[in-house]
Design goal:
The complex is a heterodimer of chains A (315) and B (317). By secondary structure, chain A is mainly α. Helices cover 78% and strands 0% of the residues of chain A. Chain B has 317 residues and is mainly alpha-helical. In chain B, helix 8 crosses helix 9. The chains are: A mainly alpha (315), B mainly alpha (317). Chains A and B meet through helix 1, helix 6, helix 7, helix 10 and helix 11 of A and helix 7, helix 8, helix 11, helix 13 and helix 14 of B.
Chain lengths: 315, 317
Amino acid sequence: MKRYVLRRVALAIPTLFLVSVIVFAMMRLMPGDVATRMVEGHAYAPTLAALRKDLGLDRPVYVQYAEWISGIVLRGDFGNSYWTRQPIWDEFVRRFPVTLELAVLTIIVSVVIGVLVGIVSAVRQDTASDYIGRILAIMALSVPYFGLAVLVVVLPSIYFKWTPVWTYAPLTRDPLENLKIMIVPALVFGVTRAGPIMRIMRSSLLDVLRQEYIRTAWSKGLSERTIVLRHALKNALIPVISLIGLQMPLYIGGSVIIEAIFRLPGVGLFFFEALNKLDYPVVQSVNLIIAAMVVGLNLLIDLSYAFLDPRIRYR
Amino acid sequence: MRFWTRASAIDSRRPVLATSSVGAAVAVAVAVPRTRPWYADVWIQMLRKKPLGTIGGVIVVVMLAAALLADIVVPYGFAQTSLSERFIAMNGAHWLGTDQLGRDLLTRLIYGARISLYVGFGAVLIGCVLATAIGVLSAYFGGRFDLWLQRGVDAWMAFPPLLLLMSIMSLLGPNVWSITAVLGVAFGIQNSRIVRGVALSIKEYTYVESARALGSGHLRITIGHILPNVLPTIIVVATTGLSTVILTEASLSFLGLGVPPPYPTWGGMLSLAGLDHMYQAPWLAIWPAVALSLAVFGFNMLGDALRDLLDPRLKGG
């Protein structure tokens, strides 16, 4: 087990190196010039050339790359924003709790809905509740979350005079107020993400319920509740967990849009604002940090199979 | 030869028919000289067994027709403003109402279908060519070439797709051609894995080996022998991928990073820039969302049904 973990971590290193090369090359080789944009907007420096020199953009690309990556590897320094000159890592750490909270709430919402509806659908296969569940899942798959978010922002304010809360309150200062703010975005995002979870929960539970050990459990005279919840569910959850793992990038990508709509000051909004200002260091560092997180999460999820299914052994 | 293989693969998915009586099973097996090509079979199976797929197909056909005939069926131009008719709710002249510049919403939705399909089909076409090239070459040559190419694909897939696409599009600037190309490349790299998997198994078949023994070159084997057998998988990847691509284009346009105005796109019509107007005219938010949902639903259902019928190996998921 230990060796397996070490090998997986070692394999992640070349992947992350390639990730950094891709993101850096992309930012530098494509059109779009931050210096022009900065001079146009505000007079940061007297001339373009002076500003480029100041930002270090006049040096060869490989030197810039070496500086960026060595700062990260040697000093844990992800560079500073071009516009605010503030360290990116500090800003990322400050904003990360918001994004994490949104992601956790979203996953809770989607898993609770998806798993519950999935169980009902599978246990009552081919009944009315099964069809309702499946139709709900298809609807959740079809409605785009940003469309639903816009409708949730617009429609209730017209017809019920209700609006989502716009001013953000940190979780640590005012938990209740914070929850009021986060729950609407999390519900919107979670509901649309519940569709695939429900579908895979249903098919995986149907699969498990047809296995021999379940028949044994029935013949022992156990109740349906015990059989489904204690015997079948644990095995049926494995595909659900791998689905959530696979969809992690979608949760993160979607949080950019959700944060932009609901004005949550998270990493997604940070990234989106940096994009609009062509703030290269922010865009490339945030991309790299998030890609590293995705790689790490996938590893954790692979390892969690061993806990859920004792038959899986790693060497 | 391979057409026959396809058709029989579909036949084998009729266990109910075959077990109903032994005679029927024999009849199905014996009546081999079929006159219908395999793709006609697929559509007939779809109508019989896949009601949702059929509904999806109908939606897709309606959308295609709207996109193709937009210039004929629509009485207004998509950028035709009329300041005296701002924020009109539904009426006889404007079935779905008008927006803040007095532009007809239905007209813009129909032209929006055209843009969605342009970008969707364009990107999927580029993506399929790229996925096939990467997948087949990587599987065929194998070894170190495969290893390094796949590490590159790994690295690409470590990014949340939306983040990467947003980064690229913000650099390139909103533009129909660049978004099509960028979505196509992203789609191609992502799906090259699936093509590679199928190509790997086909590469091991005896007939590929015998082709090599007969002295066929790399080009002949990959294009003449492997490619035709990867084709059904590519069709499945393309149909199931269309909804994702259309949705991604809408997300990017929603953020102002996709197709620029004045072109009407569903994502752009929903976007935050128009939020203030939506409070006055909620239909500006409702109808684009409905159109987008219907399109995604249609392509999803059609894609799922086609996948089940064409390639049972990819079923589920």
